[in-house]
């Protein structure tokens, strides 16, 4: 008996989450859309919607009837009174906070640059940023963290990040939960970004896709069959450590010729500087990388990237690759070249064509992805809306 009771309750929570997802991500606008999408009865949908309207999660407005249809209908939307979400991005250079609704409309954001920091200082910065977001709006359903890896997302711990001022085993979820008494979900930055793009961005409709982040290393987040792809201790696939040269230099991971030894921001800067003789920021170099003097170097970069990406595609059979972080600076011509090279290398090239694009939310994909770690938990019923 108990088991049935629990299942019915779980279903209720999951259905509420699904309704919110379909409305927040723009996939449905009316009760009829929800009936078609979810395969539930009109009565069941009507009950869920009524509950969500009463709780101020949803709002509805009357649509002007068309002459042809002549009937009144109402359009559903996320209520401005619905609880917001805090997203926190933690990477080597900065900590950033964002406060947004479940449609990713941002109402507050702030960033703090970091360098040579202790774990105690870092914790204080995270606390202060979250406090500032809560001071802006305290009606918040949780804190989602998007964090450089490696991350144990089950425990919410940043385990052993390389080159991170000696900080290790930072129990992010526990620290934030204890301080703010809010649910916390932690995931790797590119995984969070992939989730964000899958729900709201250019990954919509792609059940098997990947976000590749180009920065100090090369990271990725993979969505497979509409779910985040992970493995042992919830560790995520590491595209940066796919070897593209078995006789290459030894990497910190122990392998040789790893992709991120060739494609990382410092290496790219060195190559640009060697060609043009001027020291610039990577963004400045990328703004002129369409010039012919860089074409050989850029083509080599796309060759190497395509090698690592196509190996990953052959393992997971993905049909969309989004190139994020510094990759959002790449000119379209090189994204097209990358797409061409990937499609030359994949095994299923006869029956599958891989698309390469930038994230819809550009360089903000990973930050907004932080918030999506909470939003997704609500959508899939893991975090319930109280009854
Ligand atoms: Zn490696």
How would you characterize the overall build of this protein?
With 387 residues, this protein is of the alpha/beta class. It folds into 3 domains: 2-78, Winged helix-like DNA-binding domain superfamily/Winged helix DNA-binding domain (Arc Repressor Mutant, subunit A), CATH 1.10.10; 84-193 and 366-379, Nucleotidyltransferase, domain 5; 202-358, ATPase, nucleotide binding domain (Nucleotidyltransferase, domain 5, 2-Layer Sandwich), CATH 3.30.420.40. The protein is 40% helix and 19% strand. The protein contains 12 helices and 14 strands. The chain has helices spanning 2-24, 31-38, 42-54, 119-136, 172-180, 189-200, 259-262, 265-276, 282-287, 295-316, 332-345, 365-379; strands at 58-63, 73-78, 84-90, 94-100, 106-113, 140-147, 151-152, 157-158, 184-188, 209-214, 218-224, 227-228, 320-325, 355-357. The chain has a 5-stranded mixed sheet with strand order 5-4-3-6-9, with helices on both faces. A 5-stranded mixed sheet has the order 12-11-10-13-14, sandwiched between helices. The protein has a two-stranded antiparallel sheet with strand order 1-2. A hairpin with a 3-residue loop joins β3 and β4 (94-100). α1 (2-24) crosses α3 (42-54), α2 (31-38) crosses α3 and α6 crosses α12. It starts with a helix and ends in an 8-residue tail after the last helix. The mean pLDDT is 92. The structure holds zinc ion.
């Amino acid at each position: 008996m108990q088991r049935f009771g629990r299942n019915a309750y779980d279903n209720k929570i999951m259905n509420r989450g699904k309704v919110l997802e379909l409305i927040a991500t723009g996939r449905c606008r009316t009760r009829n859309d929800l009936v078609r999408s979810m395969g539930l009865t009109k009565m069941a949908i009507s009950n869920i919607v009524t509950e969500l309207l009463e709780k101020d999660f949803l709002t509805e407005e009357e649509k002007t009837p068309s002459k042809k249809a002549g009937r009144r209908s109402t359009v559903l939307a996320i209520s401005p009174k619905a609880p917001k979400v805090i997203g926190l991005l933690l990477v080597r250079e900065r900590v950033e906070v964002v406060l947004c609704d479940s449609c990713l409309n941002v109402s507050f954001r702030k960033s703090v640059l970091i360098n040579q920091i202790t774990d105690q200082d870092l914790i204080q910065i995270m606390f202060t940023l979250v406090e500032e977001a809560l001071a802006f709006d305290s009606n918040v359903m949780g804190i989602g963290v998007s964090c450089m890896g490696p991350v144990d997302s089950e425990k919410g711990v940043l385990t052993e990040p390389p080159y991170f001022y000696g900080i290790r085993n930072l129990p992010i979820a526990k620290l934030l939960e204890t301080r703010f008494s809010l649910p916390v979900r932690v995931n790797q930055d590119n995984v969070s970004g992939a989730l964000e793009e899958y729900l709201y961005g250019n990954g919509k409709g792609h059940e098997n896709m990947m976000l590749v982040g180009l920065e100090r290393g090369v990271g990725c987040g993979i969505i497979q069959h509409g779910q985040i792809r992970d493995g042992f201790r919830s560790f995520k696939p590491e595209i940066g450590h796919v070897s593209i040269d078995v006789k290459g230099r030894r990497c910190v991971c122990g392998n040789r010729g790893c992709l991120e030894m060739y494609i990382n921001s410092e290496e790219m800067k060195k190559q640009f500087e060697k060609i043009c003789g001027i020291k610039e920021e990577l963004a400045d170099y990328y703004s002129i990388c369409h010039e012919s003097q860089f074409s050989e170097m850029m083509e080599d970069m796309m060759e190497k990237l395509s090698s690592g990406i196509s190996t990953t595609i052959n393992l997971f059979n993905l049909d969309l690759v989004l190139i994020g972080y510094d990759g959002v600076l790449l000119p379209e011509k090189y994204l097209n070249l990358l797409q061409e090279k990937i499609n030359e290398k994949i095994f299923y090239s006869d029956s599958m064509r891989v698309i390469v694009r930038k994230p819809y939310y550009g360089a903000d994909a990973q930050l907004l992805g932080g918030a999506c770690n909470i939003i997704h938990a609500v959508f899939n019923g893991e975090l319930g809306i109280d009854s």
